[in-house]
Every structure is written in C-alpha cells, then in structure tokens.
Protein 1
Amino acid sequence: MNPNPQSSDGKHDDDSALSDFLASLMDYTPTIPDELVKHYLAKSGFQCPDVRLIRLVAVATQKFVAEVASDALQHCKARQAAVVKDKRDKQQKDKRLILVMDDLSKSLHEYGVNVKHQEYFADSPSTGIDPASREE
Amino acid sequence: MSGVESTKDMRKGEDVPGSSLGIPKADDFGRSVSKIAVAQICESVGYQGYKESALEALADISIRYLCDLGKNASFHANLAGRTECNVFDIRLALEDLGDSHGFPGASEIGNCLVGSGIVKEIVQFVDTKEEIPFAQPVPRFPVVRSGKLIPSFEHMNETPPGKHIPSWLPAFPDPHTYNHTPMWNERASDPCADKIEQARQRRKAERALLRLQQRLVCNGSTGTCASSVLDAKTENIQEAGSNPFLSAPLQQGEKDVSEVVLPAKLSNEVSKGDHISLLDAFVPAIDAMKTGPSDRLDGEKTFLPEKRPSVQFKFKTGKKILGESLDLSLQRKGERSSTFLLPDDERDDKKKRAEFILRQTTEYPMELNQS
C-alpha cells in the first residue's frame, strides 16, 4: 500500500487515536439507549459482544439524526425569516421552532431519502406533483 | 426549559403506546423508545416542539439507519470470513451509508482503515456535543418467555410404549383423546307406533285445515252460504235415485223449498227489475267467494250483504253442515259442483281451478304443515 515510514507512524497515531476514542466512548452516554441499539442490530444480524462497538453505532446514528434535524432547523428558520420580512407583527407568534414534515422532507431529500406528506385536499390540478417541479 | 420539554416529550412517548388505535404490533416498544430518543436529539439541536407525524417519520428513518448499519457491518464481516463484527466492519458500513452525502477522504484510495474521515467526524461530534443521556432506564428487550413444554415420559412417570422411544421425549396424549368409541342411540324406536302416530297427526292437521276452510267460506259470503247449501241439499236429495246429470231441472214450485229471506238491498233490487232467480242474484257473490275479486258478470257491481239474513233451511244431519257439505261435494264430485251454478264457461274454468286447489290442500295437508 504505502511503504512510507511517515504514514506508518501516522497509522500508529491513528491506531492509538481510535483506541483512545473507543475508550472514551465508555464515558460518553449516547442519547440512544444501548438496549435499543442492541435489539435492532441483533435484528439485522450484527453480532458483537463488545459494548464499545454498540456505543460507536449509537453515536453514529445520533450524529446522523442530529445532522438531519439541524438541516431541517435551518429550513424552518429560513422560512420564518421570509415570513417576518413581510409581516412584522408575526414575529411574536413564530418564535417557536417546530419540527414540521415540510422541513424534514426537504432536509432528507439531500440525504437521498424521499419522505412525502400526504396532502389532505386535492383542490388543484398540481396536487401531488413533486414540489421542485411545481410552480409556486 | 429543557427539563420541561423533555418531560413533555416523555409524556408524548408514553402516551403513544396506550392511546394507539388498533392491534399493538410487536415493534411498538422499540419504536416508542426511539421516538423519545429522537425527540431528545431534536431538542438538543434547537427545536422547541414537533409535529407528531414528522417525529414519527424521523424516528422511523433513524431505526432504518441503525438496521442498515448493522446489515452492512455484518455483510463486511461475512465478506472477510468472520461471523462477529469489529470496528473495521462498522467503519466500512459507515462509509457505505455516507457515500451519497460525502465525507472527507472518500475519494482517496489506499487509505488506512483507521484514518477514516468518518471516524474522525464522529470523534469530533463526540468532543463537541454535550452528553445527553436517555431520559429513562430502558429494560432489556425483547423479553424471552420460556415456552410451556409438554411433559416428558419421565415427568409423567410413564414408560414409553415402545423400546425405540426414549423416556426424555414428550409423553403421548391420553388415549381417550384419540380412541373412537361407538355411540348408541338410547331411545327405543318402534316403527309401527311411529307410523300410527304419523297418520294420527296427519288426520289432525286435515281436520284443522277443513275447519279453517269452512270458516273462510262462511266469512266470505254471509248470504250465499245458505243458498248454495240449499242447492246442494236439493241436489243431494235428488241424487238418491237417479243420475244427477240426466235429471230434469226442477220447475218452479215443484219442490217445496223454504223461502230465503232476501236482505234489504237485494230485495230492493229485485223488486225494481224483473224477477230474477235466486242463483242469478247470488252468482257474483259466489264468484267473489271462490276466486276473489275478479271480473264481474256484465259489469254488475258485486256486493256482499252486510247483514246476515235470517235463513231457514232443512238440515240433513246435525253436525258441520255449513261448510262441510260444500267441501264434501267438492271433494267427492269434482265436476258436479259446477252444476249448482249457472253454466258459464269462464266461471267454470275458474271454479275448476279453485276446486283443484282446495282438493290439493285437503288431500296433502303435510305440505301445508311443513311450509
């Protein structure tokens, strides 16, 4: 692969970094509980008695969810800013940031996940069409 | 604020399994726990509230992400010829899932496994993010229940019926559960007595039906009953000697027959027009009695006398005269009954049909009983 002696040192550094990280994982408690992660991993065929790896998976999932949520939050704030520009008096009401399906679907779209909220009323011919192609 | 929010989330998470409509599914517990966890993560990101549908979708996606990670990791482990996963498998799985979004170092080939960009990102994440433990202790799940086993031969202190059956196998079921014993009918049956009983019941039904017929006939025509009976009487008297078909018609006044008092309406009608015979006057009523409301004779209005007239007629025998003679005459001489009415073709056909039906009902009361 890489016969460079520098990289071999780097490898050792990485090695130690990884082992250190795994050790530090024991102190960190991920938000997603261990039992839940163990259950779903067992369901999908992941066999490992090591708790650190379970924690690693939990942390990875937490990171993913946090990223999606923060993207949705950006969308939500952008939407509120756009609204506030038009009507100043709405500033008071829209202070609360609420996780809505629209923002979620927009942020998940970047991750390749298509989540669409079912529309209650089909009152126009353009109902149900992909919002990107729909003219607003 | 965060404490309040988290309790609200908790309540939301707890409420969902109880208030869910429909059949509780096997994965409900896992889903609700993950919903709580995802809500906590959202709160840490900065959200102050959520919509139920959005949170459910996000929880579902996070569960899928978790399952995908596990599947990919086990795939990589199997690829390397192992059954247990290690950190490298997880890292490869993370890279697979992160390929679409991109991570630092994705384009580099020959990269050392430990120096993966993704792992570095995770390390960064752990370092920067504050620790948020899960709000509630989660028990071990799924709970494994020990199944109820069928007791073995040893347990039952039975010896297995064959030498080839070891004693630690489950015991055979009790013989009464699979042995077929014959069933006996306790009641003694006497075919003769049964037949006699059947015939008796048939006769009873016949009599009851006859009585019903008589009642209907009487109610149908209050006045004509007498006249028809009268006519039947005269015919019966005649028939004693000769063939009724060949006998000459009675002349008026030849036979001493008692007068029938006509009801008021009818007598008025009669007095108005010419003298019409008794039979003529009562033909429409007889029609109505026999075949229900059907076509009238020359457009005559049919009417049944409201008041029952006082009639005097000779009785042959005491019992069941009113309807019986009529019916008996119908029974015994089917064609004869048409002679005491005016010979009119249409009416004869109708009469014949009605008599046939009546004969059917009296001869076969069993069908009536069963229906």
Protein 2
Amino acid sequence: MASRIMDVIANALNLITSAFDAPTGAIIFGVPIDGHLMLEALLVMVIVFQLTKKSHKPPKKPLTEKEIDELCDEWVPEPLTSDSTEETMIEPPTLESAAGPHVIVDGKDVVNFASANYLGLVGNKNVIDSCVGSLEKYGVGSCGPRTFYGTMDVHLDCEARIAKLIGMPDCALYSYGFCTIFSVIPAFSKKGDIIVADEGVHWAVQNGLDLSRSTVFYFKHNDMKSLEAILEKINSRIKEPEKVRRYIVVEAIYQNSGQIAPLNEMVRLKEKHKFRIILDESHSFGVLGNSGRGLAEYCGVPNEKIDIITAGMGNALATDGGLCTGSVGVVNHQRLMSSAYLFTASLPPYLASAAIGALEYLEANPSVLTKLRANIAFLLKELSDVSGLATVSHPLSPIIFLKLKKSTGSNKTDMHLLDSITNQVLKEHSVLIVTTKRSSLDKCPLPLGLRLFVSASHSESDLAKAAASLKKVAAVAFS
Amino acid sequence: MVRLPYTTALTTLFSYGLLFVFGQLRDFFRKLLGWIRKPKDQLKGYAPICLGLEDFYVRRLYLRIQDCFGRPIASAPDSWFDVVERCSNDNNKTLHRTEKTSRCLNLGSYNYLGFAAADEYCTPRVIQSLKEYSASTCSTRVEGGTTKLHVELEELVARFVGKEAAILFGMGYVTNSALIPCIIGKGGLIISDSLNHNSIVNGARGSGATVRVFQHNTPSHLEEVLREQIAEGQPRTHRPWKKIIVIVEGIYSMEGELCKLPEIIAVCKKYKAYTYLDEAHSIGAVGKSGRGVCELLGVDPADVDIMMGTFTKSFGSCGGYIAASKEIIQYLKFSCPAHLYATSMSPPAVQQVISAIKVILGEDGSSRGAQKLARIRENSNFFRSELQKMGFEVLGDNDSPVMPIMLYNPAKIPAFSRECLQQNVAVVTVAFPATPLLLARARICISASHTREDLIKALEVISKVGDLIGVKYFPAEPPKHLNQGHNKLE
C-alpha cells in the first residue's frame, strides 16, 4: 500500500520536474525561459496582488436624520446663569447727590471715601459751567465713531491739551476708561509676541492679554527680581529677537494693592533686555509728580523712555473716557487698529470739555497735589493701629489699601467679613468705604481688602472721623 | 443680498491689483532707502510695531484717501452741521485743521430720532442733573457710583423693552465684550451670524467658548449648524455641549437689513438654544412705538433670552443696557466685570436717556415721540424708494433707516465722498476691513430731523454725483411720477 502511494508521488514529481526543466522554446531578452520560471512569475504576481489590496475597513456610516433628531431631543442645556448666588450681594448705596467728599445716602449726610475724586473736581463750578456750554452747543452724545463724523473739535483740543501736559507729541482719546487698556494691548501685541505682566493687574488688563493671543508670563507682584529672571529666561529662548515684539505690562498704582511700580528699575531692565513698556496710569495721572504728570515725573524718568501710556480719566480728572499716548507712530497705529477706537461712538463732547476744564484747574492750582499728599499721610498715620487690618499701600498712593492681618480661609468668607465691617461703618458712623470686589472671571491672586479713596477736598475732620469709625468697628469685629 | 455683476468684479479686482503693484513698488524703494539710511540707535534690537505687510493696506491704500475719513465737525451732529476743512502739504500723509468750516447736510451720523442736538425737553433736565450730580461719579456701580438716576433708568428700560429687569453699562462696546464671557465659558458653543459686529466677535473670543458661524440671516443654515453641532458634541472629546447661545443683531449696520427674527427664534426654541439679540441700531428706530425689532416683526420679548442695546444711536446719549429675566440680571450684577470694575455711566447721560424714552413713550405730555417715529419711517421709505428708482443699488429692508449704496471700485470711494462734500452733503463711505474687499459702499443714515426739502436736496446731489462717477448699476425708472404730479396740479 505504502509503496504504491510512493510510486504515484514519485511519478508526479518526475512529471513536474520534467515540465519545469523542459525548455518552452521562448527566449526573452536573450535568456531562455524554463518551465519553473513561469510558476515563479505567477507566484510573484499573486504576492504583488495581495500586497496592493486594501485591508478591510468597516464602512463609515453617517448619522441618519432620525438619529440626529433623537440626539437633539435628548440634549439638555445647562441654565444660562449658574445658581451660585446663595450669597446675596449687599445692595450698593444709592447716592442722592454729587459724589463729592460728602454725599447724601438715604437722606443722611455721609462722608464719601468710595469715589476716586482725587483732586476734588466733582462739583467744581468752572468745570460744570464749561460742560453746560458744551451741552448746549453739541448735545449729549456724539452719534458716531471717530472715523464717521464723530470727531469734534473739543476732542482734538482735549487730545492736544493732554499731550502737552504729559509732554508727548500726540494722544488718542477713547470713549470709556475701562476699555482703553483692553483695546490697546491687542492692537500692539499679536499671536506669537511675548508679554510679561504683573500678577496683580486688574481685570481689564487681563482681558486685554487674553484677547491679544500672545504668550503671557506673570511675575510676582511688584518684585523686580522676579521680573528680571523672567526677562532673562525669555531672551535666552528667542531665536529671532528682531521679529518678536516683547512688552512689559504694569500699572503705575495698582488698584488691587495700592503699590506703586518702581519705574526706574523697570526702565533699566527694559533697555537692557529690549522690551517695550505699556504703563496703565489710571490712578496716577493727575496725582503723582510735582505737576501731576504721573509716574514718569515722580520717578524722574524722561517720557520718551516709556513706550505706551494709557489712563482712564474717571479718577483724578472727574470725567469719563480714556487716553493713550506714545510716540507719533504709536498713536497713529492705534487710530487705525484699536477696536475700541474704531468700532464705537466717540466720547460725548461735554466729557471732553470736562477733561479740558480739569487739566486747566490742575495747571492753575498745583497746590492741590500737596493737599492730597498731606491728606494721605494724615489718614495713614491715623489708620496705623486698626485691629485686625494692616495698611499695605504705598505712602503716596491715594488708594489706601487695608488687608486682613489673618485671612479667614477663603475669599468668600473674607468678603463676608469685610462687607459686614463696611456695612456697619456706613450705618452706624455714616462713612462710606468699600471692599475690593472680585468677579468670578478675575484671575488676580492678591488678597481682598478695604479701600479708601482719599481726595484733596476731604477736610481733616472727615479723615479723622473715618479713621475713628473704622477703628471702633474693627475692634468689635476682631475681638 | 448683493448681486455683484461680473464686469464690475473684474474692474474692481483690477484696480486693487494695480494699487497693490504700485504699493509693492513703493515699498521696494522704501527698503532701499532704509538700507542707505542707518536705523536709529534707540530702535536697534527691538522688533518694529508693524512687521512686513501687516500695515501695507494702511500705508499704501488707506493713507491716499485719508481725507474721506475722520472729518472733524464743529457743531452738534444734527441734520445740518459744520464740517471742519483740513489741508495737507504732504499728499495726505498728515492732515491739519484749518479755521474754515462748511455747513453740510448730515447723512452720516446715527441720529435716528433727532435727539443729537439740544432738545427742548431733554436738555434743561440734563443740565439740571449735571448741576446736581456733576459730570462723573468717579466710582464703580457697586461701590459709590449708583445714583437715583441709574436705578430709575434701569426700571424704565426694562419697562420700555418689555423684560423683567435691566442693567446699565457705560459703553455699548463694553456691554458685549464683557458680558459674553460672563454667561458662557469653555465647553459652551456660540453660534453667531457671519456679519456680526466687532464687539460681539471680541466678546465671543474672550469667553473661551467654541465659536461657529452661520450664513448671514439664513435660518435654514442655522438649523443645519445646530443639528450638526448637537449631534457631534464638543470638538475632540464629543461630550455634549454645556449650553448653546445664538447671537444675532436687530439691524445689521453695514447691510441695513432686518434680522429674520421669528424664524430664528423658532429654530432656537426647537433645539433648546439660548438667543441673544443685539439691538444697537434698531431700538428706538423701528417699530410702531419704537420698541425695536421685536415689535416690528411681532415677536414676544419673552422669547428672546437676552436683549442688548445701546443708547448712542436713537437716544442721543452714550452707554448700553442688557434686559433679561430677574435671575440673569441679579447674576450679572454679582459677577459681570464691567459692572464691578468700570466707572458708572455719567449722570447727565443717564438723564438724557430717561428724558428721551419719556418723549418716545409720550410721557412728557406731548406727541413729539409718535411724530418722530412716524417721520423716520416715512423718511427712510421715501429715500430708499427714490434711490432705487434712480438706478442705485441700495441694500436693506423697508422701514430700516440705514441704507448702503454699493460703490465697489476703490476709486469711486473717495470720488463719491469728495464730490458730495463739495456740494455740501456729508456722506460716509466704508471700505475694507469693515466690509469685504470687493464690496465697498456708501452708507446713509436717515434721521427724523431731516425735512422733506433736505431729502430732496440730498437726492439731487447724490443723483448728480452718481451719474458723474457711474454707480447707477441698475436701469433707472423713467421719471413718470413727475409728469403725473404736473398733471395733477393742472
């Protein structure tokens, strides 16, 4: 049995071998083709065919209309606003008269430390008269953006006046102080540029940094060593320094802490590492310096060294609106690229007249600055021994900032405690002071505290009353 | 919608191409000269503020026609005003004011109801409030900046618009940019109309939510986008969206069109999306009693979740508002940065709005409000139909006081503007980047303070200038209505 199978296999093998070795008679390219070469060629073709065939993938099925309908029916959106308002916000006091050093709230006369009326211009008769003239001539609103007949001669006069005071060639006027900085930063800094900002800057600056889409680094609040370290780190990593714009963004007087930025040191660092400075002087314009020119005058730095200065006019100048100055190139660039300048109506003309009136007053009465400084010094001395609170602001800052000596644990509970103190001070002693507010969108890590805005028109008795009432209430609250 | 004829598109592209080529040539010479002259030492090592072609458009195209933009005026922006003349010694690179002014007809300011100049009811009250509260409160709303006037205006605005509560802001632009990040954040979806205003775009970008765009004023495309987005979920993770907000405007300021509000609200209700309506140009200007697009198109204000508006256009003041349900407004008063950190609205401006709304509602004891509303409707419809009869390509819907006239070619922009100014009519011309590159236009804003004679004079001037520069793209109707008029007189 086995031998017969072996014979069959041997015969078959012999047949195949002879078929392979038999010359087919075909000669291609001078090489005789034998039978086995045909089989090998067939094998190669089969291999190539298998390799080139695509692997089996299950077909993609797009969602049917019915499935999309089901998904849409199932989807439940969150409510538009979160219900995290279990903490009822204390209603702010409603003023019934002008926000000067004394104001009427609920029929009672209250000493007002909540208005940033540093030069005491609220209620100034000359300013009000020039506003009345402006209202009668121009009406209230300007009814158009700056490019479309919204530019009035008062705007141009105001810009020239401010530029003259600061000592820069030109100035751009914005219609609202809040949006000045968050429109200026994206106009100059774009994606791919680098910004180094102080961690304590206020929300409008933070929003500007977000909108600019640049890479942002934060340095420790008012700490020049931290700033220098970051500048060196950045410069060592940039490959083409002439193609990347770099900015340092700081405030002159910080709203969130009352500190003053050390401009001399900053200018030295900026020149060494080739950065540009954007300085927000909202609370220092009209306050610092011998003639109120701001931080540059106070530090003795020539204005040309600061590239861009912005300021809101809702503080010392007792009007509204914002300004931004710099070299001619800086100002012209803004007039065409800054969104809050182009796409919005211009400043109401009577507010521009109020600004001109305020600047005239400042130029004619530089002694108001000395009075303001004396008031600040007096109040700081009186507040040096309040229980539970410590003053952390600079001795020249018109915002006196008191923070809790020991935090209660979270921002929420701190806020409760501070709100209860200010509420009591208002109800029992008729003095209006405020706590710092923090929006849920604000990323500032600095602690909360109490703020008193000192004005040159506060009398000594006002200041003494404020200090005494705060001491009394704090003693009870922290006992 | 704009119908761009092929020949016009070709000529416009050719003109821009020519300008581009010349601009590049000039840039080349500027670079050459830059190599020859050494750079200033103080700028060495710094990156320039504008690199390369970033400001090419400004330097080579905009500066040539700079005198058509930013014209200063020396009086109130009423129906007639004084335009200050400017001169230039260096080919329009810098412009200097002169002392001369010329009295022109104002077709450019947003003065829909005529409150721009001193008004007999409003101005005395504004001056009174100025003397009482001074020009500014120097404080934020939550600290010491809320006066009785602010509280009164918030209640009045809520009543006027038809919502439960309202909140004020000092500026319209800030209202959008600081509000949208407050109500939506990462994980949310914003669907906005493709031609929305810059403030909405900025607010949407600043919020961190995903932004999608739907074709201008097309509810069917909005529905498609909504279905697709809800089915797919968030990008990459495919988790369901936290919430969806659809943002539209009442009147689009560059097209003059009204929003298709009833259809869009129907779509949003079906897919449970929230709606945000920006009535910057339509509040006070359209609708039988001036209540805006909702009144005109018959939409219940309760169907729109958030209504926003500004006081700059129809009320002759400044500032903006948001009107919504009590819970939303309470939440905003607690967390919106523009309410917590920004200086409160100037008290005289608040008083101006209060007085203007009282006039519109007739609560001042006269019928001036109703007269103004009727007049602006008549004026807009008359002007638009006359322009269309003359053969101009005018965009926009009936009843809308904004009417753009298409110009297209870049050279026609300064030609139209300068010729009209010579004949004492002040118009506004808009080009790139506020409009698409090929679709430059002149935009006319009608006011209730324009009289019939003013409009007829404007029509004559525009017709003459239109013939001169060739912008009558459509065939004109023969003036048979004049003959009919003559027959009637005889």
